[in-house]
Amino acid sequence: VIMTSLPAVEEYLAHLRRSMTDLPAGRRSEIVEEIRQHIEEMLAEAGQGASDADVRNILDRVGNPDEIAAEARERFGIKPATPRWTDTAAVPVTDRWPSASSDRMDRGSGAPVGLGRLDDPGQTDRDLCGTGRAPARVRPGPPAN
Amino acid sequence: MVAGQERLLTQMRRGTLEYCVLALLREEERYGFDLVKALGAGGDGMVTSEGTIYPLLTRLRRDGLVTTSWEESPSGPPRRYYRLTSKGRQALAEFVDEWQRFRDAVDRFMEGGQQ
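^ inputs. structure came back:
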């Protein structure tokens, strides 16, 4: 009986997979497949008439995917790879992407906010540290050099 | 409960969990769901979220303390069964030794304190 086509379960497993993208692929898929199996066993115990609430309850018991990912990191001795915008803000912008064009930055292909060259990076850094917030608007810089 | 005690208990549970898993496998092989049930998830059990056992099982396998094999299940897809290796058996025996010594040492103080 294959029941894991349930959208809530697939969503849960996708979340879990996303939370562990910094783990080696083999271990990640092993954990995801084992948890899929675990959920299937729970669904089998619940019987055919499992309601949406039952499914939610089961997923709650399995646990928060982010916590499972954190547990995996600890068990494997992997440091969390969650880059924060402050990590970027501390690096002089022009040194980081010396040849970046404004065009590339505009597209924002996964690059953190605040990579554009700023007229006064020092001032901006102070602002960022002071408020703990990213600036509302970052002007893309001109092509560097 | 005194601040920090909850955290200490969590850490103790977490640190000893892998040996509880190895101990559960001493007599028989088991699959993940069965292991979680035996560990008594929630309440006074060893794990709070059932899913957190799987990263540990994966690591025990990578470390060669357990080995796995697929076996048919009477109801549904095949299950991955975990079995103790000789390395795992040895690690468990060493821990049991250390644990008894540690437990006795702590007990001596706890019982002494009550007199």
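The longest strand of chain B covers residues 66-71. The mean pLDDT of chain B is 91.
thumbs up if we can close this ticket
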